[in-house]
Design goal:
It contains seven helices and seven strands, in the order E-H-E-H-E-H-E-H-H-E-H-E-H-E. It has one domain (2-229): Alpha-Beta Barrel (TIM Barrel). The longest helix is centred in the middle third of the chain and has 15 residues, at 76-90. It has 230 residues and is an alpha/beta fold. The protein starts with a strand and ends with a strand. Strand 5 (157-162), helix 6 (173-186) and strand 6 form a beta-alpha-beta unit. The protein has a seven-stranded parallel sheet with strand order 1-2-3-4-5-6-7. The radius of gyration is 18 Å and the shape is globular.
Length: 230
């Protein structure tokens, strides 16, 4: 069961990834936490409570995701606590989870909230500043070294990475070598590797096949890091 905390008409994210199915973020950096772009916390919790009480099938996961970066919600920490409480009350077998780009983990309150979730899936497509700037296109400077250090400290972390060829892609041999070394430093419990599947706007990236990506997974597995290609 997905929880989208962002108002449907908007994409609210710290990144403008070349492959994003939602297109570009049209909100300025300083506007990202304005409440008008998000669903009220009470509305989200009431809807989740209704679903958990009335759906005949209980979810395996209750996941923060949606059209943007969930951790930008002004009441994200409160939402996490209330979602966990509802899960404990109404669907105790479900696991709480998040899909995130990790850029807000430098904030102590966000890091603390994410630590409370059962499954943390954080995206890391790029191993250095140059590729990150070209491929993920942050709205503000992101210190990739600091991001990696933050990810190293998170327990039970799953890393997701989407790879593409092309002039704006991240599939060069030099970058792949750097990315594998970075993943070895982080030591996640799982790495999920994939390429383009849904719609995207950029004409500077090209989809890869599973056969292109499988050697990446095999390299990680040889290093003792579980990895899977989707």
């Amino acid at each position: 069961m997905g929880i989208n905390v962002i108002a449907p008409a908007n994409k609210v994210c710290t990144l403008n990834c070349q492959y994003c199915q939602y297109g570009s973020t049209r909100i300025k950096h300083k506007q990202l936490r304005r409440g008008e772009f998000y669903l009220p916390a009470n509305t989200i919790i009431q809807e989740l409570k209704f679903r958990l009480k009335n759906d005949s099938i209980k979810p395996d996961y209750i996941t923060f995701s949606g059209n943007g970066e969930a951790t930008l919600h002004p009441e994200f920490s409160t939402l996490v606590e209330k979602v966990i409480a509802l899960r404990d009350e109404l669907s105790p077998t479900a696991r709480t989870a998040i899909l995130s780009n990790g850029t807000q983990l430098i904030l102590p309150e966000i890091r603390s909230a994410i630590d409370k979730l059962d499954v943390k899936i954080i995206k890391l497509d790029s191993a250095n500043h140059q590729v990150y700037a070209r491929y993920n296109r942050p709205l503000f400077p992101v210190n990739t070294g600091q991001l990696v250090e933050t990810l190293m400290a998170i327990k039970n972390l799953t890393v997701q990475a989407l790879f593409c060829r092309g002039p704006a892609g991240n599939f060069s041999q030099s970058h792949l070598y750097a990315w594998i070394n970075t993943i070895q430093k982080i030591r996640p419990v799982m790495v999920q590797i994939y390429s383009l599947d849904r719609g995207y706007q950029s004409k500077k990236i090209i989809k890869l096949n599973k056969s292109d990506l499988q050697p990446l997974a095999e390299s990680l597995i040889l290093c003792g890091i579980p990895a899977q290609v989707f």
